[in-house]
Amino acid sequence: TFFVEILLPNPARDLRAGMFARGEILVGTDTGALTVPEEALASFAGIVRLFVVEQGKARALEVTMGERGGAPGGSAWVEVIPAKGGKLSAGDRAIVSGLARVSDGAPVRSRGGQ
To answer: What phi and psi values does residue 47 have, to the nearest 5 degrees?
Structure first.
């Protein structure tokens, strides 16, 4: 933890002297990291799963969450690391809605024909 002084535009004067804030400073990037929208992850009994579409069916993949990010008011993302033996690639399509009704091997119908 350390103090940082920053300059922020404040035309509406919402920010006042002496206010505190919490922020993050990106000190490096990993261009090979795989990220998904936060809503694509399902957690139950301490196990985090990501469902991907493979040949028209859902495939459950146990993952570990890494770094998190996202702009305020924007969509949040999470880095995912496949559990030992799991395979995940940058082109895989993650299921982001209807997770309560998805199970491993269940047929998947995509919106928009994708």
So the answer is: -105, 130
**110 residue type, one letter:** S
Q: What pTM was estimated for this model as a whole?
A: 0.71
pLDDT, tens digit (0-9, with 9 covering 90-100), for 44-81: 899 999 999 999 999 999 999 998 887 667 778 999 99
Tokens of 16: 């006042």
Distance of CA 95 to CAs 3, 67, 75, Å? Answer: 40, 20, 15
Q: What is the residue whose two structure tokens read 């047929």?
A: 107
In sequence order, the β-bridge partners of residue 50 are 41, 61
What pLDDT shows up at residue 12?
94
pLDDT in tens, 79-110: 999 998 889 999 899 999 989 889 999 999 87
Q: Hey, what are 88's tokens?
A: 């995940």
Q: Which residues contact 90 (CB under 8 A, 6 or more apart)?
A: 34
Amino acid at 49: R
